[in-house]
Amino acid sequence: MNNGTQGRNDILLEVKNLKVYFPVFGGVFQRKVAEVKAVDDVSFTIYRGETLGVVGESGCGKTTIGRAIINVLRHVSPDVHLDGQILYHDRNGGVTDLLRLSTTEMRQYRSRIQMIFQDPYSSLNSRLSVRQIVSEPMEIHKPEMGKAEVGERVEWLLEKVGLQPEYAARFPHEFSGGQRQRIGIARALATNPDLIICDEPVSALDVSVQAQVINLMEDLREEFKISYCFIAHDLSVVYHISDRIAVMYLGSLAEIGTAQQVYFRPTHPYTRALLSAVPHPDPRRQRAQRIVLQGDIPTPLNKPSGCGFRTRCPIARPACAELPPPLEEKEPGHFVACPYTRAEDQNIN
Prior knowledge:
This protein is an alpha/beta fold. Helix content is 27%, strand content 24%.
């Protein structure tokens, strides 16, 4: 695993001060009456060959970040407000802001950035064979490849993801959920990308199948030297596959650091609460008292002033209502958006 000490030359993607606001229309004339701050001033970096896990509760904005990176949000909501930068670093030293590209301009980068979707049942076209599904990215982005070459690569990719080459003639309805997700992984690998956005790729699968798919993805990362942005809500799954982990709450980053730092030395009170809820397989193991957060998650339509977590935080201070806390480096590579990180401040167990 990477240790978080990479240099500038290892950077693949930089997300700087990303904001994604969706308008809410109302009234007789359907005018803008509010906006949902799905992502609110988020910054992080993805290095070559690493997996960055993005974790948080439903509605925290993690999937929106993935869609912003592949630049499809304007197709979902043409009136969406996007601000900040998403800088893609190619191997020749060039830097491109993906957020500023049009649909036509973005097309040449889609072969470098692919996506694996959450639901393996709806993400595959049921009318296409596996061969057509996996070969389609190559036909779009690699027109110089001949038909025979494409066919050979499809069968090779199916073998790489643990499926038999003869399955290429079958259709999605003939496969289980885990097999369908393997087909989705093969499709994402078809253009030999630098980065794959994984939007909760195992959440719809059985637990036993989840482990198989996670192990497969780790093996493929090592072999193909690709990077993952692994989006999930399960901290234990994210820890297993990630080099670094970013914890989100209500559209903002609460904590980011190496997997060891975040999982074993959580500093933000929200991260500590999340980890206290992770079940342990050994019932005889003594564990710390679970941290139960009070109240409901605030709506992103009307976020609390200052720190978005303060309304549920067990160590909140009056000053927390004034300004959003910046990410501060508490130890090398470990950033936390909370000024109260000393042991006496965090006495919430």
